[in-house]
Amino acid sequence: EPRTRLLGQLLYGSGLRLIEGLRLRVMDLDFEQGVVTVRKGKGEKDRRTVLPRDLEPLLKEHLKGVRELFERDVEAGVCGVYLPDGLERKYPNAGREWRWQWVFPGASLSTDPRSGKERRHHLNERVVQREVKRAALDAGISKRVTPHALRHSFATHLLEAGYDIRTVQELLGHSSVETTMVYTHVMNRPGLHVRS
Known about the structure:
Number of strands: 5
Helix content: 40-55%
Shape: globular
Radius of gyration: 19 Å
Largest sheet: 3 strands, antiparallel
Low-confidence stretches: none
Order of helices and strands: HHEEEHHEEHHHH
């Protein structure tokens, strides 16, 4: 499905975790600087990573459709998207602003269990996991494939391309370089690049 495919391309091209990709807001994509801002990632940390230039036209086209959906929601009186950390109390209308909208919104409205308000949430994790699994089966891949494999591939391919481990660590948001060094296992297996 095009929306899920685009999300998968962004996970791979930016090294995002699935939930980080789903929680992206329109304001988190900086096309001018080529940067994706991850807010409250793992460990409640913010970070910046690369926005793949190849995806810019696809993302901009995708956002046109998201904008139309947003405008229909505004016309229908939908209360706006969920805002974190008391922002809704401080800025009660911010959830109805374009910049706060999800990049990958869900197809339907749902009731927010915290407030009881009907609003549009982001795409569901399980939908993406199911579609990635199905795509892997359709491609004839017999290994277990999850959206997180795209993040692993991002890191591994950067290291194989010669980027230093500290850069990869920063882009992935790892607090310890030891965590990032797990990806070097691909490059530390002698003989596996030899053809018989």
